[in-house]
Amino acid sequence: MKIVFANYFYDDNLDSELDLLRQYYTVVGWAEALQKNGCEVTVISRFKKNSEARMNEINYVFIDDGLGPVIRSWQIPQKLLNAISSLRPRYSAFASSHSLASDNCVEKKTATKNCHHHSTSRWQNDEELEAYHS
């Protein structure tokens, strides 16, 4: 199963792609959890330069679309959308920048159980999360 995680926003203070992945560590955990469960995962993120990397069997694509770190309501990130479309994923997940660095995110647990993503946590603890999925 092909899954694409698309990140529409980034922190302009980050200097490198590795810095972006370190700050948005929940994306990496989410992708690794899906990959370990048999999914083919690609993470596509808008960033201030174009590049690609492969780590732990996960493809990371960074796209500079010239729109800056925050997309305005009138802007269309066409390069990002084209990259997603070209992969023909079965599922796509999207996140806002505030949810990616949050200690309260539950992407990894959710992804391993149901192969989908919640951008912000609704659950206070693991018991509430487990009750939701049962």
How would you characterize this protein structure?
The chain is an alpha/beta fold and 134 residues long. The protein has helices at 17-23, 25-36, 78-87, 97-100, 107-114, 126-133; strands at residues 2-7, 40-46, 51-55, 58-63, 91-95. The protein has one domain (2-133). A hairpin with a 2-residue loop joins strand 3 and strand 4. Helix 1 (17-23) crosses helix 2 and helix 2 (25-36) packs parallel to helix 5. It is globular, with a radius of gyration of 15 Å. Mean pLDDT is 76; it is low at 96-125.
- Largest sheet features: 5 strands, mixed
Query: First CA to last CA: what distance?
Result: 23 Å
For the CA atoms, what is the radius of gyration? 15 Å
**Tally of helical runs:** 6
Helix content: 25-40%
Placed side by side, the strands forming the largest sheet appear as 3-4-2-1-5
The quaternary state of the protein chains shown equals single chain
Average pLDDT confidence is 76
H/E series: EHHEEEHEHHH
Structural class: alpha/beta
State the total count of DSSP E strands: 5
- List low-pLDDT spans: 96-125
Strand content: 15-25%
Count structural domains: 1
